[in-house]
Amino acid sequence: MHPMMKPALRRGWRDLETVQFGMTPAHALTLGPMDSATGSFLDLLNGARGLPLLRQEGRRLNLPEGRVDALVERLSRAGLVDDARGGGPAADALRQKESVLRRLRPDLASLTLTTPEPGGGLARLAARRALRVRVRGAGRVGAVLASVLSGAGVGEVEVQDSGRVEPWDVAPGGLPAESVGDRRDTAARAVVRRAAPERAPRRPHSPGSGAEDPGLSLVILTPRDEVAVHAPDPREAEPLLASGTPHLYAGVVEGTGVVGPLVLPGESGCAGCLHQDRTDRDPAWPRLVAQWRTGRSRRTGACDLTLAVTVAGLAAAHALTFLDGGSPSAAGVRWEASLPGLTWHSRPIRPHPACGCAAARKAKGEHSSTDGHRRATMAVQRPTTERRREAGAARPTGTWRAHV
């Protein structure tokens, strides 16, 4: 191990004996009381030295025997220490790609904040390269979302859609103006390639085969049709539920941005649960949906550009949290925000006993995947990669005082 203080956390001395790491309440930690020798030793935790050399430096600074190991252990438990050479073989392979790592360095810094174990941030960043995500829908939301996932290091991002690019599909970070008139899926895939920090690996599969590939880590449904955003058709997700493929909904309908639910088949509420619940609360719901779906569609819907980009970013953040092994708040929840207030609020999508997804039966007496604890994500249990993560306790919010 080559310990290094996590560079993403700014350091400042609160007084002569107390040092604070980080500025925001979510990640700020204080350490003290600390003598001047121990404070000087922190500067040596820069990843350039292994533990044997650090012990020698500790003796040079007249630190008590065993203080170096105890300090490194406590800093590691507090989530303040990274391992400059940790992360495993996949991380070692990524270190060899200097240009790729330079592109992803801000993402790596962020992952070190949410990953307490030394070397865990780079391990998760490297693991993204082995994942496959499919985005269904390449409008203002879908194309931007796909490019963000690709730019964040997801190894393979597929985009599915039909038709040709219209002028109102164009968005910064998404489909460019010069793609108007081109096939929508082809143009979106070009955007994904340009955003990627490296070339996507070749896979022995055919994206247009129709059947859901079991190697998919996540499918994100970003329909351009407003009705499909507001009332997702459960039939569209039946192949995903049957194959156990996690999927996330996102879109804009009549000036309202929607993110979620993230559906974990057999665990959390799905589009069918949403439909059944709405029918329970409003008997006219099925009649309205039928009219909306068969009615004459408008040429363009109300999809504010800033709201579309916001939805794309939030959906991408939820997707990455899930792919990295966390439990995003969109699991079993639909987040909505409407113009002009843009106040986000959540609507739980609970498993419904009348839905055939079986989540309601499993939810009885079993651990819920949406209780805020980390979980072994389905994304990393699928054939895309063989890695597993053990669930661990979430890091406490606010400041924490460790006496060393």
TrEMBL record:
**Residue spans with biased composition (Low complexity)?**
393-404
Region Disordered: list its residue ranges.
Answer: 166-185, 193-216, 363-404
- InterPro entries in the record, alphabetically? Bacteriocin_synth_cyclodeHase (IPR022291), ThiF_NAD_FAD-bd (IPR000594), Ubiquitin-activating_enz (IPR035985)
Q: Where is the composition biased (Basic and acidic residues)?
A: 363-374
Give one Pfam hit by family name.
ThiF
What are the THIF-type NAD/FAD binding fold domain coordinates in residue numbering?
A: 129-356
Q: What is this protein called?
A: TOMM leader peptide-binding protein
What is the species of this protein? Streptomyces pyxinicus
Q: What is the lineage of its organism?
A: Bacteria, Bacillati, Actinomycetota, Actinomycetes, Kitasatosporales
